DNA sequence: GTGAAAGCGCTAACAG
DNA sequence: CTGTTAGCGCTTTCAC
């Protein structure tokens, strides 16, 4: 079946079988198309009663400007591209929601580009962007498109860009993030304050920029508390539940078992706890577990997860606001840091024998 | 700071300070603009060596067609709008990922419209759609835009539409969904087969179309097993973790407590289990809990959740495929039903005293 | 304060 | 197989 056969009819049921154009409005209001355009773009420059007449005609015809024509003429699309590494990751949904909300208010639409680990898709979105299909982009993926640069060493993309969550090293664009290093240090020190001395650290993907900040914070915390950094205690993960499960197995196989594990995502922490429980190891009685992000499920995990709260919606909003400022010729800070919060729940306790 | 001041340079570093247009390519290849256009749209209609010359010129200039111009002329945008009730809901992320993937392969971009309970936003996206900014739309929100209809009773939107997950009553558009009723019935009967007689049912939002199917399935299952439907055992929720928590409190306050609770979302089931545990009620020893959806966290919940698996990525893919078929003039089935799976894990057991 | 006119960059008839 | 021509619907000088 096809739904393509319907006749188009203007919104309020008047007019013939096609969308109203600026001409139709102009004719009805007895003005030129230029005036109609003005009423929409800069109402104050049109006399009051002309404006009223035009507005009435617009309502009557159900006129909606054709965006392609407008865009062709004005070289603006009122669209923003949001590039992210993995749409399926639940961590992003609230951030996206914050972005969408803010963009919407500013009159911009949001196009999503899911990289999904495919260089081909990345190239596509780079082309997409340089083809002028969007006015700006928010990058959550930690690097610039294809890093293609022209002879002058300037990126070929010449629209405003904003980096969100993952800083882009060497890129001269505004960055919105949380202080990963400080947050990570804070959690590490909290763990020590609860009596832990052997604290394992479950990382995100090795090449991840923000991960480097976090592990630095972990080392900061250790050092501040007079503890040595032990590479043996660092387990590599990738933020997913599955890598938490795997890390649990790794841990269970060890003879010298840490008393606490600091996971840099809640997903990993939850997966880890699961493996531990299945093996009869209790959290937090036998081993403490801490997370990072404070996703919705952290509070209802069993036990409720002690973690670092990231203001995800606010991060999205801040990035969108920064981009809109840029798009409208305003300036925006080079770096915006949002505050994290240590959320103490039940997954961390004193180690046995303390 | 502003990043707007960069000069634009064509991809490969050649040419002056502006993007190449079709004219530039035509001149360089010594053909007309029409031929360049043909090389891009229907290469086989152009002679081999002209094509080669044009392709070379395209590469040399770094030409990328201007989408606004193309769109204005051809009345196509190669964009699809995806409307959903709540972007922040993690249930949607994998579906979106499936949609994006399929759309991308077909050469379409994905614009996200998050309704977020706002009628104003809904109106916006309706206008957006009728303004021709997208070629088609996938609706996950269970109803048509603003249900504005013109004099003839036809919807004002005349582009292909596809309904995903939530059927749209009375709408004559293809529908992609799972068999909610059968799945719900199956779970109910499974619960009965494990010895349960008093099975509570935790619903989604009351006005939700798909919810009506599910509760029907629950009643089917009860009836098939010779059990009476008891409205007292129906608790109203809204798919969120929070409503699961609330339902738990409700249940704890009851004197006649059911031995099992069938929740129509995993989020609610997880929230519910949390409340139960906090009150010292064990799952599944004291009460069994079943979910719906099989989100990632279901498998690592404590206890691991028995639930109905929905093929979320496949749902997204199927909807996108159906829409693309429509957009390209092919036909598509009126209704596509994807199979669900009963996933037995640890949250359901025999009731005590059986 | 308003109108006329010139395109924005592309595609699709229509000729040849 | 290829070129010429005429717009798609809008915004924006430039006159008045």
Automatic annotation (TrEMBL), chains A, B:
Superkingdom classification of source: Bacteria
Gene3D superfamilies: 3.40.50.2300, lambda repressor-like DNA-binding domains (1.10.260.40)
Keywords annotated in UniProt: DNA-binding, Transcription, Transcription regulation
Keyword Transcription regulation: yes
Domain HTH lacI-type: 20-74
GO molecular function, one term: DNA-binding transcription factor activity
Glycosyltransferase among keywords: no
Cited Pfam families: LacI (PF00356), Peripla_BP_3 (PF13377)
PANTHER family named among the record's database cross-references: HTH-TYPE TRANSCRIPTIONAL REGULATOR GALS, LACI-RELATED TRANSCRIPTIONAL REPRESSOR
Protein's name according to its UniProt entry: LacI family DNA-binding transcriptional regulator
Source species of the chain: Microvirga alba
Lineage, uppermost ranks: Bacteria, Pseudomonadati, Pseudomonadota, Alphaproteobacteria, Hyphomicrobiales
